[in-house]
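Thread: "does anyone have the structure for this chain?"

Original post by V.I.:
We have the sequence but no experimental structure in hand. Need at least a predicted one for the grant figures.
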Amino acid sequence: MKFKCFKPLTALCLFLFLGADIFAGVSVIVHPDNPNTTLEAKDLQKIFLGKTKKFPSGDKVVPIDLSQDSQTKAAFYEGIIKKKMSQLTAYWSKLIFTGKAQPPKAVSSEEEAIKYVSENPDAIAYVDSSKVTDKVKVIYQY
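Reply from O.Q.:
Generated one for you, tokens below.
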């Protein structure tokens, strides 16, 4: 007896299984010497939307962004910051035009973000959780 749904079901299972490895989640990282051990989503929203220039501990913060076409960036902003990429672009355009703020420094890859954070105690960035190394400290995961 043939099962007509076997092939589609197998394909779906493979897609779900392999898809889990493609995107492991988002980790927010800081320098290992950074005194902050954890942050809340509201803190990250303030930092990455330019509403504060300090960690909750009072230390200076330098947010690092990924390039516009990054899937990790889209996941971070939609999941944690609660803004779609089009909303984020409009948000920063307005602030730049009025001279109220500048967006975070952007780097071209997650490896570059990790390198920057590992060399700068004030930096904070987000990367795909599967790319985190021992050169940085994770303070938030999504």
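V.I.: this helps a lot. The mean pLDDT is 88.
O.Q.: and The two ends are 45 Å apart (CA to CA).
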